[in-house]
Amino acid sequence: MWNVANIPKIPIVYRRYVYFLAGEKNANYFENNCWEIINQETPMHAVPAVVVIRGPPKSGKTTLAKKLAQRLGLVYISGPEMIEGILKHSFVSQFADILHELEPNTLAGAPQPMTLAEEILTYVRDGQTVPKFMVYRVLDLVLQQPKAQYHGIVFDDYPLIEEELQELLYRGVVPSTVIELKIDSQEAKERCKRNRNPEYDFVDLPEDGDAAMEYATMKYNTASETTLDWFQNEVQNTTQIDGTQNKEWIYQKAEAKVKDNMKQMQTYLTNVLLEKPSTLEGTCPLTSQIPDRLSPEYGFYCPVSLNEDDDLIRVTSFTNLSEVVEYKGHVYILANAKNVKKFLANPSKYLPPSGKIPPKELPTACSLTVQEFEDLKGHQGFKDFDPVMYFDADSQYKGLQRGNPKYCVAYRNKIYCFVDEDNVKEFMKKPERYWHQTLPAKLPRKSAPLQTDKVTPYCYLIDKCLLTDIKKVIRLAGEKRPRLPFVNPDKCASLFMGYHFKSQNMNTPYEIRQKYRNAMFEMMQQKNNSKKFHSDLEEHYGSRIKMIPEKLRTKLDEFMKLESLPIEEKVLVPTIPGVVLTRDGADVKFTFEEIQMRCKNIKFQLHEAEKRDKAEAFNIFFQRKRVSEMMMLDEENANEPTTITK
C-alpha cells in the first residue's frame, strides 16, 4: 500500500519524531490513537517459511501445496512447473520482440530472450529429459524472487531424492516444516478410478492402472526413504497427516503447523537478539552441527543437575530439541523438562562464575572383552568387583559382586567393572563417591566352572562317597525321629540332615562341629520330652496359666493329643478349603486307610470340576466366534450393491 502512487504520504510530528502515514484515513486514526499505536508491541522478525509437502501418488500433495501458497502468500515450486514457467516466460519475451519489430513503440521495455529457456527447448524438442543441472539453474532463478525471499516457498514433492536435498542445503535452504500425507494403496487406486475419464478405454491410459499405481508407490517409498530419515533425525520437523480426511481439515492442520513453526522461529530470533535463553524446538537446526555449538565448559553435561544434585549426567542424543537450550551463542543440553524450566528462568545461576563446572577428569564408558580386561590387571581400580554395589551395601562383604567386562568405565587412569548398565550410569553421575573405596582383606573366591575332564573318577566319587552319606543320614533320621516343638516333621528332618553334614565337616573347627552335634542330640531328645515341655510352660506362667493366648492354647492342645496317639496315626492330614474331614460331625478318629480314601475322592472331585470348567470355557469361546463370523457375513452382505429388477 505504501508503494501505490495515488495514495499521498502524510508526515506527522509527535514527540520529536516524524511518522509517515499512507492516506488521510490512517493519518486521522493516528492522531486520535497515537499513544496506543506508539506503545504497541514491536513486531517479530519476518521469517520466510520453507514448507515441503510429501506423500505417495494421489495423496493430494499438489492440491494442498497450491492452497497453502495461495492463502499464505508463498511461492509454489514444483519440478515440472518450474520448467513450464521458464518456457512460458521465454515465449512471452519472443512475442514481445516480434511486436517491437512491427511497432517500435509497443512493449519497448519487455525482457530479452532467455538463453536458459532456449537450452531447455533444445532438449524438449528432441524428446529428451531436461538435465538436472538445468533444473537447479531454474531453481536458483525461482529462489531469487523477492516474494520467495520475504514470504517463503512451498515445495510440491521436492526434494525427493538425496541429490535434490543436498542441492537445497548447498543453497542454504533448510525446510522449516515437512508435511507427509499418508494414504493406503487401496485409497490411491480408488482415486485413480474416480479421476479417470470414462470416454477413454483403460488400455489408452495405462498410467492410471492398478499395476502402474503400485509401481509408482513402490518407487516413491524407495526413493524418499533417505530424505525422510534425514528430515526425521536431522531437523526433526516432520508431521504426518491423514490424507483420507476432508480437504479443508487437512489444510487447517497443515496451516496450523506452519504457523506454529514460524512463531517458534520468531520467538527464538527475538530471544537471541535480547540475549535470553531459548530452546531449539521448531528452529530446524542440523543436529549434526549441534556438538560444534556446545559450551566449552559443560559440553554434553547438564549444568542444572551438576549444580543442584552434584550429578554428572551426560546426554549424547538430540532426539528431543525441547531440552536443548541456546544462550549467548552457546548450546546447553538439559537432562529433563524440569531442568529446562529452571535454566530458562535463571540461567546465570547455573553458569560461571556462580555455577559449578565439570571436573577436568571425566569418566568414560567402554566395553572390553575378558582377555582385554585381564591384560589391564595393573590398571584395575577396584579389581573386578562392582564399586557401586559395594557402596550401596554399606561396604559389607555381601556387596562384593564381580562385574562384567562388557560394562566398564575409565576414570583417573583406572578401569572399573560393573554388573549392569544401570550401575555404569550411577558411577558416571557421581564418580567421586565410588572411586576411592578400598577392598577388605578377605575377598570371595572366583567361581570357576568344574572341569570334569580333570576330575579322575567324578561319577565314581559321587556314587561311593556322597550318596553313601546321604543314605546314612536318611536312615539315621528315620530311626531317631527328631522333633522340634511346633515344627513340621519334614522341616525337622531337613534340619537334622543339615546338622549332621555340618558336624561331619572336618574343615571347620571342633567347637563348631560340637555345636551341631549338640543340636542333633536335642532334636532326638525332643520326641520324649513333650510332657516336660508342657510342665516347663506351666512353670514359666505359674499362676498366670489361664492367661495363655487362645491361639497358643489351641496349638498346645493339638500338640499334646499327638503324644497319646500310636505311631501309625501320627500322620499329617492335609487341610483343604471348604472340605471338613469328619465322620458325620462326630469327633471320631479316622484310620489311615479312610484318610487315604477320602483324599482320593476329594482329588477326583477337583479333577472333575476342572474338566467341567474347561468344557464350559471351550463352548463359550466357540459361541463367541460363531457370533463374530455371522456379524462379518452380515456386514459383507450389507456392503454389496443391490440390483433392482423390473
Q: Can you offer a commentary on this structure?
A:
There is one protein chain. By secondary structure, this protein is an alpha/beta fold. It has six domains: 30 residues, no CATH class; 214 residues, P-loop containing nucleotide triphosphate hydrolases (Rossmann fold, 3-Layer(aba) Sandwich); 60 residues, no CATH class; 71 residues, no CATH class; 112 residues, no CATH class; 45 residues, no CATH class. Helix content is 49%, strand content 10%. The strands form four sheets. The chain has a five-stranded parallel sheet, with helices on both faces. The protein is elongated and about 125 Å long. The C terminus is likely disordered.
Write the SSE topology.
Elements: E1 9-14, E2 17-22, H1 24-32, H2 34-38, E3 49-54, H3 61-72, E4 75-77, H4 79-102, H5 115-125, H6 132-143, H7 146-150, E5 152-156, H8 162-170, E6 177-182, H9 185-195, H10 210-223, H11 225-235, E7 238-242, H12 247-273, E8 278-279, H13 303-308, E9 324-327, E10 330-333, H14 337-345, E11 364-366, H15 370-375, H16 387-392, E12 404-411, E13 414-418, H17 421-429, H18 431-434, H19 458-480, H20 489-503, H21 510-525, H22 530-541, H23 550-564, H24 592-639
Parallel strand pairs: 3-5, 3-6, 4-5, 6-7
Antiparallel strand pairs: 1-2, 8-9, 9-10, 11-12, 12-13
Helix pairs in contact: 3-12, 4-5, 4-6, 9-10, 19-20, 20-21
